Amino acid sequence: MALQHDTEKVSGEAFNEVGPLGPPFPIDARVNDAGHLEIGGCDVLDVAKQFGTPSYIYAAGDLRYRARAAVKAFHDAEAKFGDGTADEPGVLFASKSFPCTAAYRLMAAEGIYCDVASGGELHLALKGGFSPERILMHGNNKTDAELEQAIAAGVGYIVIDSFDEIDRLNKLMPSDGPRTLVRVAPGIKPSTHAYIQTGQVDSKFGIPLSQVEQAIQKAPNFVGLHCHLGSQFFEVEIFKAAVEVLAGFEVDCKVVNVGGGFGIPYLEHEHPPAIDSYAEQITSAVRETFGFGAKIMVEPGRWLVGNAGVTAYTVGTVKEIPGVRRYVAVDGGMSDNIRPMLYEAEYTGVIADRAAVQADRDVRVVGMHCESGDVILPEVMLHEPNVGDTLVVPATGAYGHAMASNYNGVLRPPVVFCERGEARVVVRRETHDDLSARDVE
Question: Is the pTM higher than 0.85?
Answer without folding.
Answer: yes
